[in-house]
Amino acid sequence: MADTVDTEALHAWIREFARLIAEHKDLLTELDSAIGDADHGINLHRGMSAVVEVLEKESPGRPAELLKRTGMTLVSTVGGASGPLYGTAFLRMSAIAGDAETLDGADIAKILRAALDGVVARGKAQAGDKTMYDALAPAVESIEESIADGQPLGEALDNAVRAAEQGRAATVAMVARKGRASYLGERSAGHQDPGATSVTLLVAAAARALA
Amino acid sequence: MSAMKKLINDPAHVVADALRGVALAHPELRVDHEQKVVYRGDAPVRGKVGLISGGGSGHEPLHAGFVGPGMLDAACAGEIFTSPVPDQMVAATKGVDGGAGVLHIVKNYTGDVMNFEMAAEIVAAETGTEVIAVVTDDDVAVQDSLYTAGRRGVGVTVLVEKIAGAAAAEGRPLADVAAVARKVNENGRSMGLALTSCTVPAAGKPTFDLPDGQMEVGIGIHGEPGRRRVPVASAAEAAEMLVTPILADLDYHSGVIAFVNGMGATPLIELYVLFAEVAAILEKSGVGIARSLVGPYITSLDMAGASVTLLRADDEILRLWDAPVRTPGLRWGI
To answer: Which parts of the sequence belong to the DhaL domain (chain A) (predicted)?
Structure first.
């Protein structure tokens, strides 16, 4: 497949992410009830359902527009910490996408890097804090390396999914230092982070829809 | 497990349905049902600093119950235990801006802080309104370090809203009102315990399991697990568990506002039993009580339990505490 991602492909990515969130809603909420406040699945599902509805109503022209509308809708509907974090991620992707009609592999790596930077700016998380960062950061690094090595986007995204999954698995042993889970201190260890879990679904959705 | 018993119509509509009740019971307030924002009826008050707060629902009367003269100008209601979204704070900020700026009172939870931050960024981009945010973080149960999200905002939030609200009612400028709010937060500490968990309507089952005969010490107001689990103790022992860490955290002397708060399902008679024990400990420690507040003011749905907040009060704080207030949740002097 050609390494060109247009608005329609991005739209498919968003729809696939919404589908995966719906499918894993109960798992996300269960993970969150162990170390948080038991609403991650419910909140993201509400937000992504709203995004799908908004994008169905009026199909956006350029990639930046679709990403912006996704981010704005998430900010307005999710609440909690996930709303601003996912919302900021999509808004930063939109800013990087600019006027482009289509994105190539290098562009996808760039927008994902911007998403990660947005999550860091909003949440101030660092590696090892047991947050979505711990799955998203390795995924972004992986796709950057793959693209730099000249791999096609599909392969690069498949590698990124594996990197995210490894990062997600690594959160189990971590002691949370951000968010509500941090109140538990050592008791947060032994549980997989819900944010790292949902953001892995975002990368998995990209691998299925963008390549 | 027994089925959830709640006086609701539909778990998905609890917040909207409750706001309909608020609007009908308190015609002096104005409710924006679309945005889920409760305003005092005469907002914006020209020339007065506007005070807004907000947070997840389920802590009533906080925050909507504290909207009115002498306290908040508006409150944003989120989903149960979920921060409101920036659109709501943006609408509230614009709706209470009487030309003297707007204070955001934010409880220190990751979601609340981020959503209020985004709202302040949007307000800055769209209007010339000056906004200052004060974050409350008084819960001594949480270790305050670089390795946590910091202490949670709990009981002191009620006192900040009352006292900063009185400062704003005096016509003081935004920087002063913010300084008063910060002073109250810095001089107040809280600690809570739970006898039972609470049940979020959408979840339908208790947030955590607390076996018979056990209580959880150091809980927050969202059913977050606490510091430790111990056998249910007497009110005297419970008072020790709550007051000791507070007195260890801050140097208290005479002149405190002592606030014993119910978590939602604990009857007032038990709160008074607890208050008597708290007062006895304070007397032994040489800490005189200047004012007191006893009742369910910052709750956690149907959780049974209580929290203690002690605020070091100077003359300014006491004067502002005594100033008139007229809200559904607190009302005196008017």
So the answer is: 8-208
* Mean of all residue pLDDT scores within chain A: 94
Residue A57: CB atoms within 10 A of its CB come to 8
Are B79 and A33 within 8 A, CB to CB? no
Evaluate if residue A191 carries a pLDDT over 60. Answer: yes
Q: At what angle do helices B156-169 and B174-186 cross, to 10 degrees?
A: 150
B224 touches chain A (CB under 8 A): yes
Interface check B203 vs A, CB under 8 A: yes
Cite the residue boundaries of each domain of chain B with CATH code 3.40.50.10440. 15-187
Look up the pTM and report it: 0.91
Domain B188-312 fold is Hypothetical Protein Tm841; Chain: A;domain 3 (3.30.1180)
Tell which residue, A136, A153, A20, A156, has the closest CA to residue A85: A136
Length of chain A: 211
Quickly count: other Cβ atoms within 10 Å of residue B70's Cβ.
Answer: 25
Of B65, B59, B247, B93, residue with least CA distance to B162: B65
Confidence of residue A1 (pLDDT cuts 50, 70, 90): very low
Q: Looking at chain B, which residues constitute the CATH 3.30.1180.20 domain(s)?
A: 188-312
Q: Closest Cα partner for B221 from B120, B101, B20, B81? A: B81
The fold of B15-187 is Rossmann fold (3.40.50)
Q: What is the pLDDT of residues B62-99, one digit of tens each?
A: 999 999 999 999 999 999 998 999 999 999 999 999 99
Q: Which of A101, A98, A102, A74 is nearest to A88 (CA)?
A: A74
B59 part of the active site: yes
Q: Which of B85, B107, B205, B219 to mutate to test the interface with A (most CBs of A within 10 A)?
A: B85
| Calpha distance B90→B119 (Å, rounded) | 5
| Sign of the C-alpha dihedral computed for residues B184, B332, B158 and B83 taken in this order | negative
**A172-199 burial string, b = 16+ CB within 10 Å, else e?**
eebbbbbbbbbbbbeebbebbbbbbbbb
Beta sheet of B256-262, edge-to-edge order: B228-231, B214-217, B188-194, B305-312, B256-262, B289-295
CATH class of A7-209: mainly alpha
B222 is known as an active-site residue: yes
